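User: Here's a structure from my thesis project, written as structure tokens. My advisor, Dr. K., wants to see whether a designed sequence matches the one we expressed. Can you design one independently, without my sequence as a hint?
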């Protein structure tokens, strides 16, 4: 059995960029660059036969004004066989907003993206903006960085988000690779290692572990480990990141895709969407074992 590559893009789009990365430094350049980078990613994906998952800020799928709304591109991504997931409706900081807002953001992003592609109930995945909350209370894992405390802030416990997702017909949510209990965080030593924790299902939602962000040497190491151990590796990228000289740069991405393409042609790797992986892997059974 070959290894599996799951690439998930956090497609922040114009509104997501304004709401997340230093809004007071706003300029159009990175917004247009991100859109062009998505076009480039689609080309490369086609060239190497790689299906990917694009978690999009839902607002972009609404009809309106380019570049803030860009439903054409969402339809194009979908028509090329990639998965469309939700990255919220306007890239909110979930630990801060009210429970009603959480529900509306999840609901409206799902319906806007589905209306745009014309495929009812096709948006199954959710990628939390800013990867927040990072706290999972039932695992005794708390992140001060969430800047919100459950139960005063309903969005500060990932389990509560999972419950909402389940109610709204979602099937999976991207989560951190590991949730360390507070005592382990205080006294344990953090290690960045190539490991494949068991996928779990909680509140009816498949929790998709985010193994690594970027396409550099460490991502390549993860990829070859996935092949060797016949596991699925979840690599995360931001289309905007292709324009930055960091782990998600275009140079790293190109090299990574070339390597993945080589493994695919040798029959040692399949690169697919999160939903189709979950379907083949877990349909009719509880997640586990990979
Ligand atoms: Zn984001």
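Assistant: Designed independently from the structure alone:
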């Amino acid at each position: 059995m070959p290894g599996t590559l799951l690439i998930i893009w956090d497609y922040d789009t114009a509104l997501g960029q304004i709401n997340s990365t230093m809004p007071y430094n706003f300029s159009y350049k990175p917004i247009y660059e991100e859109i062009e980078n998505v076009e480039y990613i689609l080309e490369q994906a086609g060239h190497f036969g790689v299906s990917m998952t694009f978690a999009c800020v839902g607002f972009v799928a609404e009809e309106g004004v380019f570049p803030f709304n860009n439903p054409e591109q969402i339809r194009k991504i979908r028509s090329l066989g990639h998965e469309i997931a939700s990255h919220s409706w306007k890239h909110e900081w979930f630990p801060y907003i009210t429970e009603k807002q959480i529900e509306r953001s999840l609901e409206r992003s799902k319906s806007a993206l589905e209306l745009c592609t014309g495929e009812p109930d096709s948006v199954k995945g959710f990628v939390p903006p800013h990867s927040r909350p990072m706290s999972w209370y039932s695992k005794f894992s708390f992140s001060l960085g969430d800047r919100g405390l459950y139960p005063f802030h309903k969005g500060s416990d990932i389990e509560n988000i999972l419950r909402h997702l389940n109610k709204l017909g979602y099937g999976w949510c991207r989560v951190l690779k590991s949730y360390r209990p507070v005592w382990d965080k205080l006294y344990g030593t953090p290690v960045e290692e190539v490991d494949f924790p068991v996928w779990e299902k909680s509140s009816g939602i498949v929790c998709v572990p985010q193994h690594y962000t970027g396409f550099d040497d460490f991502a390549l190491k993860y990829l070859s480990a996935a092949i060797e151990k016949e596991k699925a590796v979840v690599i995360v990228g931001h289309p905007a990141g292709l324009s930055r000289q960091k782990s998600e740069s275009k140079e790293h991405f190109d090299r990574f895709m070339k390597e993945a393409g080589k493994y695919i042609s040798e029959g040692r790797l399949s690169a697919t969407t999160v939903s189709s992986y979950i379907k083949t892997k877990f349909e009719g059974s509880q997640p586990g074992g990979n």
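When you compare it with your expressed construct, this may help: Residues 28-48 form the longest helix (21 residues).
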